[in-house]
Amino acid sequence: MKKIALTMVATSILGVSSMSQAAINVCVFDLLGKSGESFQMAQEWALAAKGWGADVNLIPRQDEGVADNDFKAGKCDAVFETSMRARQYNKFAGSIDSLGGVPSNAVAQKVIAYALDARNATKMTTNLGGKKYEIAGIAPLGSAYIFVRDKNINSIEKAAGKKFAVLGYDPAQKIMVQRVGAQAVISDISNFVAKFNNGQVDMVGAPAYAYKPLEIYKGLGTNGAMFNFPVLQVTADLVIRPEKFPAGFGQKSRDYFVKNVAKSFAMINRLEAGIPAKYKMNLNPADKLKYQKLLREGRMELTKQGIYDPAMMSVLKKARCAVDKANFECALGGE
């Protein structure tokens, strides 16, 4: 009996041990799969995660929709995807990508560090339909710029009637494009630039991160241009099911992302510098102010519609005004 009891205890201990060491599957969206910048960043994070008691198995996904569906289906215990898609799990973090909300890398750095701070831990966790989700990291992917096939489309007025590829899962893009009188062409992250390159659409918004992998230069050709004016800041969220990870893992992971945010911006600066100067079209001060006001109006409208989180809108405005006190909106209410 004693031997049987000891055998049972040993089996139980081994079972618990194997459970605690079981690999945690994390789906990582990267346009270039394993060779992409995001996947390489995830590999460094996974190495650090071992020190927090998690054995992470990274699963590359070049189609973001597939990565998200795998997470929903339980094939992955976490997913690293754009905040625009991750907004469904956490509106506070997902609203950093609001239209015109983060006009520079300096503002982005302040906002990301604040959001990931321990004081906002409760805002990083949500309970949806009985399922718990937690944002365990936010990484910047850079400002999104508008690319046009014809550099003569150099104002809002001239964008009227033009076809603009928008991501179907982000209603904010569709609403904003319609506000300027352009035609929203519903697309996905896997084909929105392809439509620009083959002439199905006249305009597209994307960060420098996508310039080479998606070959945006093919759509620009010899007559295209990039508005050197950031429309929004693209970020990626690491969404986890906290029960699948060791206790306290979420905050340790968020602290890691804060420490590495400067490294991420170094990558972004390198990618932005890689876009040839011949394509970059600067706006005059009057047009720049006009666009800022248009984005502000759209942002406030989308917040009223419940698409953006009001608390994050307040955080973004404070960060913008801390970096640029002369900003016209700093003396205005409404956000």
UniProtKB/TrEMBL annotation:
Gene3D superfamilies with a match to the protein in the record: Bacterial extracellular solute-binding protein, family 7
Superkingdom per UniProt: Bacteria
UniProt KW Signal keyword: yes
Coiled coil: none
Signal sequence extent: 1-22
Keyword set includes Signal: yes
Keyword tags: Signal
Pfam families (UniProt xref): AdeT1_2
Record-linked InterPro entries: AdeT1/2, TRAP_DctP_sf
Name of this protein: RND transporter
Organism this protein belongs to: Acinetobacter gerneri DSM 14967 = CIP 107464 = MTCC 9824
Lineage of origin: Bacteria, Pseudomonadati, Pseudomonadota, Gammaproteobacteria, Moraxellales
